[in-house]
Amino acid sequence: MPIRGLNSIAVWQSELLPAQVVHGFTCRTGGVSQGAYASLSMSPRRGDDPAAVRKNEEILCREAGLELERLTSTCQEHTDVVEVITPDRVGVGIRRPWERPVDGIITRLPGVPLLAYAADCVPILFYAADIAAVAAVHSGWRGTAARIAEKAAKKLFEMGAEPHNVTAVIGPCIGRCCYEVDENVALRFPESCRTPKEGGKYMLDLPGANRLMLEALGLRVDASAPCTMCNNHMFFSHRGQGGKSGTLGAFIQLGRKNEGRIS
Fold this sequence. Notes:
Layout (H helix, E strand, L loop, with lengths): L2 E4 L2 E4 L8 E6 L23 H15 L7 E2 L8 E3 L19 E4 L6 E5 L3 E7 L4 E7 L1 H5 L2 H11 L7 E5 L9 E3 H4 L7 E3 L4 E4 L1 H11 L3 E3 L25 E7 L2 E2 L2 E2 L1
């Protein structure tokens, strides 16, 4: 499991992304949140103390070498909305609110860290090497059924990226081993991604559904991340914690901070 220590925090990282792309999926430790949110909870929208979340953002940016003033996040409501972050939108979601729900964000701006959240849902990071663009996407079962990951990839294509130059990293999320759903949810997904059980229930492979979707577009996909519920000691899990938990942060940025400069 490629867990890397970044000073006082730990993150899961993909080995498919190059060194100049700063990225990771945060683990639970190293923050200041308390109780069910202990300790590095990244989202202010799940009941955590907003002041603690702000401090956790500072910790993440300091330890990962990101610029806090430029941190830009999603405003997640299980939509299929993907927006491009232009200079006038830098800091939205953190410094000022979005005008509508947004579950995916893309930018070509170097030194602008993007942040999405998850606590069993599927967080996906994208890197388009040929156009120097990155994206962060939140995809729960509703977002996956609405094909938000595909829409993010196609937006990158519209910006000039070629599919074979795009890498998608599916981060820690709930796996088929733990994700039981009703039939009305399961039948929205490919047969290969659902395993029937008694009583009309199914075990659903949500990361697998996203992997199939993205591979069909010609992307290179890293789907090696662990299950959040199986590894609830390491990652937040909504189901594993009875519906009350913090959230991991899925972050990505073009360029590294080096002696005050992004290179």
